[in-house]
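ok trying this again, last paste got cut off
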Amino acid sequence: MVIDAIKNRRSIRQFKQPFFIPKKQMFALLEAAMLAPSACNTRPWRFIVVEHRDGLEKLSELHDYGKMIKTASSCIVVVGLPALQEGHEKDLPKGFLPQDCAAATQNILIQAEAMGLGTCWCGVYPKEPVMKRVSEFLKLLPGEIPFCLIAVGEKDQDPEQRGKYDELKVAWV
């Protein structure tokens, strides 16, 4: 069930090596991302899959909290495309890029868990220095926003669950 993948998902910071993620599994992760909801179905994203060891090492150096990327099998970079939300029905979807990219990211994390893979979401947006470093390294076009880096690989740890249902955070109206 989906709730099991949600409950079992953890941020994994240690990955087994060597481990290769088959293209079929990578396509499943990307398909899950692209099935996420977005404002007015603008789908304001694209994805860059980094698999080469030198690229993973460089990304791990560019992000202050992304050291685990160095040992991951791959890294999916979620790139936001705000231009896709401009000029659409009186700019109705404009400004919803963070929510849309976050939904795509969460779908990747849950699909990876369902497939037995580990992930760690490393936020990039809205941290300007990190955005600049990642943009330059990946040669992103003007107007493209590096939203996050997702380390993906075979888990080499089993962290404790941190989230839980909390009745105090719910109001019934």
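PB: full thing came through this time. The first strand starts at residue 45 and ends at 50.
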